[in-house]
Amino acid sequence: MAQPNRSWLDGPEIPAENDGPDNISRWPGENLGLPQSGPRSMASVGRRAIAVFIDWFICQFIAGAIHSFTSSLGDTMTLTLILWVILGIIGGWLFARTPGMALLGMGVARIDVPGARVGLWRSVVRTLLTMFVFPAAMVDADGRGMHDRGTGTAVIRG
């Protein structure tokens, strides 16, 4: 079966959890029970990266405003990272999406129990692993990063 066209923005591809010689998916998320397109389909890696940058710029703006009043919390970039982690944890836990994800029509969903809330521990682990970039950049054939595989989640459209 021919592989779909991929670019360097898709990141390195590692085998998906459900991949095997008899179980090759035709589209990202097929083996997870997700549709090929539309609501609840897998969000692309590029779209997810743009959402992270939107969240980062929001936090950088807020950090710059805070830093103009006090430097006791560190420099602007340190404060930006702290705010980004807080935003990721709270957004994922309470709303299953960050502002960047919401602007691009995406959200985080559990794949082990469809319809269940993401929860605090999954939100914390996902955000901290995303902070280190590498786990989020290593995607499988379903387009899920190692941080999603480790927490039983996926970033979906809709």
UniProtKB/TrEMBL annotation:
Membrane spanning residue stretches: 49-70, 76-96
Family annotation (InterPro entries): Pra-immunoreactive, UCP021697
Organism superkingdom: Bacteria
Disordered, as annotated region: 1-38
Keyword annotations: Membrane, Transmembrane, Transmembrane helix
Signal sequence interval, chain numbering: none
PANTHER family the UniProt entry points to: PROLINE-RICH ANTIGEN HOMOLOG, PROLINE-RICH ANTIGEN HOMOLOG-RELATED
Protein name: RDD family protein
Source organism phylogeny: Bacteria, Bacillati, Actinomycetota, Actinomycetes, Mycobacteriales
